[in-house]
Design a protein that fits this description.
By secondary structure, this protein is mainly alpha-helical. It contains five helices and no strands. The mean pLDDT is 79.
Length: 146
Amino acid sequence: MAGTPTGPNNSQGNIDQLKKKGIGMGGRLINHGFIGLDTFMRVKDGEKLPVALGKAVLTNAAFSLIPGGIVGGMAAMAVMSAPDMMNQLDQATSALGAKKQQFGGNFQESETQMYMMQQGLGRMQDARMQATRRMANHARGAQKVY
């Protein structure tokens, strides 16, 4: 029984299958794109073009040695920095809790307190209106006198 010929079942065979699908070309384009971007940024910072290109190629080669490439390197850095970020978040939360205790504690408004606050605000507005009326009445009377 004759079957279709397949490549070897090893890593080289898998790489060859990816190359047939065009995946290897995309990776090369991304690598060249990173080299171009890194070179541009270095030239923009004031380095000479040959020096910037050499540094960009070496940086890209170093990232290529990391399993997963630059994406794997960034993921590894994110995983390593996660505990520090969690500690900073905990410190910020505890500082916020301390300020909350300092300025009002665990104050919770109830319906009764809201009613009393509304009454107080209403009385302040009434007092302001009464003062305005008194001043206006005085001004009317004073206008007639003078």
